[in-house]
Automatic annotation (TrEMBL):
Entry-linked PROSITE patterns: UPF0034
Protein name: tRNA-dihydrouridine(16/17) synthase [NAD(P)(+)]
Native species: Psylliodes chrysocephalus
Family: Belongs to the Dus family. Dus1 subfamily.
InterPro entries, sorted: Aldolase_TIM, DUS-like_FMN-bd, tRNA_hU_synthase_CS
Domain DUS-like FMN-binding: 15-237
Catalytic activity: 5,6-dihydrouridine(16) in tRNA + NADP(+) = uridine(16) in tRNA + NADPH + H(+); 5,6-dihydrouridine(17) in tRNA + NAD(+) = uridine(17) in tRNA + NADH + H(+); 5,6-dihydrouridine(17) in tRNA + NADP(+) = uridine(17) in tRNA + NADPH + H(+); 5,6-dihydrouridine(16) in tRNA + NAD(+) = uridine(16) in tRNA + NADH + H(+)
Length: 466
């Protein structure tokens, strides 16, 4: 608790580490709107230790960017220590990411996919704790049972963890199956350990924060998605989205970051506006924008469109047809993005699947008529269409194919100049020095070419002799 109070100054309102999203400009914007502690994005310890360029970009900060915690992922104690030693002078603590549930974490064998390897995690936390000048903290996800979650937290505390962030979701709760975080697990951990506990999950507004502190007993609350859609969440405000958007662009001008980060933040700030079908062109243009000036132009256009409604100069008629979600506030105000529940998502997927199957059945059963008005199957209709697209054959082709070769009983070639079958035609051309274009027999031509080449070779030999 001394670390939380004396070093971090008792932060309650905390912005989570977010890959490609908690960069310096966004951290400064969040601090302006009430954030008391921020984390860097998750940094890959092996790359950080080896790549000076990656390290320099990851540690970009300034005087106003305090207090700050640097977060690392990895699975090798020595490499993570090497990275942490390079970062400890730029922050007040080093956090170990044990909560990332994404596929990249599974492939890289870090984040939440280490939570079953307690011996390795104890070694990592203990190694960093004993060799760094700054404290070591951890961010975890819960297990299926409270008992195992508590044992997990106690193991990390014993290894040297000085502050613990508990995400009340399981490792498998992500994407459309995210669902709600269970705060009772946070409460169980808080009552079982002697280090500060931060609660993570379900924070979409200031009321959620207050309720979370009461129900969990945690010393602070961390939010990620709620902060991205409304950076003024910690102040209990819902400003027009163009205000924080322009403030963020000003900070990004001062402290440059990749344009992909900027684009991602604007998509979230304007999510509800861009969800309106009539604004699809704005969404496309924002996705294609690749300069700060283009971003500013789009923000100004959105402001010009909705500021008259915000100031009461025009009447906004609330309708669920105007945007994708039945949200309580007008779409130009910063507000949470509310996901479907996992049950609703699964039901929608199943309904779409059933609709597709029904359409396929209807297509297969659909009745077609031929040129004479008779009902035929879809398969036969396709075959008739293919036949109709075939080129027409010559009228006399069938009759000619029944004629016999003048020399034998075989059918004659339809294009043979001498009205012979191919074998007889070939013999005739060989004996009489002829060509037959119908059978592509070129005896005469080839002999003439051979004579020409022989004549040229003879001339070369005479020239060489003389």
């Amino acid at each position: 608790m001394d670390f939380w109070k004396d070093v971090l100054s008792s932060p309650v309102k905390i912005v989570a580490p977010m890959v490609d999203a908690s960069e310096l400009p966004w951290r400064l914007l969040s601090r302006k709107y009430g954030a008391q502690l921020c984390y860097t994005p998750m940094l890959h310890s092996a790359i950080f230790a080896k790549d000076p360029k990656y390290r320099k970009e990851a540690l970009v900060s300034c005087g106003e960017d305090k207090p700050l915690i640097v977060q690392f992922c990895g699975n090798d104690p020595e490499i993570m220590l090497e990275a942490a030693l390079l970062a400890q002078d730029y922050c007040l603590a080093i956090d170990i990411n044990l909560g990332c549930p994404q596929a990249i974490a599974k492939r890289g064998h870090y984040g939440a996919f280490l939570q079953d390897e307690w011996s390795l995690l104890h070694n990592i936390v203990n190694t960093l704790s004993k060799n760094l000048r700054v404290p070591v903290t951890c961010k975890i996800r819960r297990f299926e049972t409270k008992e195992k979650t508590v044992q997990y937290a106690q193991m990390l505390e014993l290894a040297g963890c000085k502050m613990l962030t508990v995400h009340g979701r399981l490792r498998d709760q992500k994407g459309p199956l995210t669902g709600l975080a269970d705060w009772s697990y946070v409460r169980a951990v808080k009552e079982a350990v002697n280090i500060p506990v931060i609660s993570n999950g379900n924070i979409q507004c200031i009321q959620d924060l207050e309720r979370c502190l009461e129900e969990t007993g945690a010393v602070g609350v961390m939010t990620a998605e709620g902060n991205l859609y409304n950076p003024a969440l910690f102040l209990g405000q819902n400003p027009p989205a163009w205000i924080p958007a322009k403030e963020y662009l000003d900070l990004a001008d001062k402290y440059p970051c990749p344009l992909s980060y900027v684009r991602g933040h604007l998509f979230k700030l304007f999510h509800h506006i861009l969800s309106i079908p009539s604004n699809n062109n704005l969404r496309i243009r924002l996705g294609a924008a690749n300069t700060m000036n283009q971003f500013r132009i789009i923000i100004d256009e959105i402001r010009d469109m909705y500021e008259p409604y915000h100031e009461g100069l025009k009447l906004w008629e609330h309708s669920t047809d105007n945007y994708s979600q039945n949200i309580a506030l007008p779409p130009w105000l910063c507000q949470p993005y509310v996901r479907d529940t996992p049950e609703d998502h699964i039901k929608k997927v199943e309904d779409k699947k059933k609709e597709a199957e029904q359409r396929e059945k209807l297509d297969n059963k659909r009745e077609y008529e031929d040129s004479e008005g008779r009902t035929i199957s879809r398969k036969k209709m396709k075959r008739l269409r293919r036949i109709s697209r075939r080129p027409e054959k010559p009228e006399n082709m069938h009759e000619r194919s029944m004629e016999k070769c003048t020399e034998c009983v075989n059918p004659l070639g339809s294009k043979c100049l001498y009205r012979l079958c191919k074998k007889c035609c070939k013999d005739k051309c060989y004996i009489e020095n002829l060509d037959c274009k119908g059978h592509r027999i070129l005896v005469k031509t080839r002999r003439e070419v051979a004579k020409m080449y022989a004549s040229q070779e003879m001339k070369k030999e005479i020239v060489n002799i003389t």
